[in-house]
Amino acid sequence: MSRIHPPAPELQVERWLNTEAPVTLESLRGKVVVLHAFQMLCPACATHGLPQARKTRQLFAAKDVAVIGLHSVFEHHEVMTPAALEAFVREYRYVFPIGIDRPSPGSSIPHTMRAYQFQGTPSVVLIDRQGRLRLSHFGLLDDMSLGAAIGQLASEDVAAPLIADAVHEEEAEGADANEGCGDAGCPVG
Question: In this structure, what are the phi and psi dihedrals at residue 143, rounded to the nearest 5 degrees?
């Protein structure tokens, strides 16, 4: 049974790191886009999400797969500044483009995070070669599951309709309703 996949919302980024020009989803059309939303003070982001993004960048050809980080801060705004993020990115040697999600006046949830309806960080999004949202997952996602999903999307003809639903249905392991950040991620309060 086929699903209709909506177009991925454009990224609303205040500033980019590790790229000469702003990155747009339109400019990445024809590639599979792997978007890792994170906060630098989120334990699961630092120990799993960002290393997974780095591995993804290393394992898949740049002509087929684009890896993007999105720093989506919804807590501790006063310490997770652009300057702190620059130092963090440099210290950990992340070289893929990283956007700073545009803050929303009057809300702790930034624009792109709201548009994608992220439940917290880390979150992984897969966008197919046609710019359609194919997966949005909050929490830890197994490397094998992510790699299989990326591989399937990368091997699809541009007109192919679906990715396996198994990854869509996978629960965020360890994510719970407890307040605060933990090993499984940082849920939106």
Answer: -55, -40
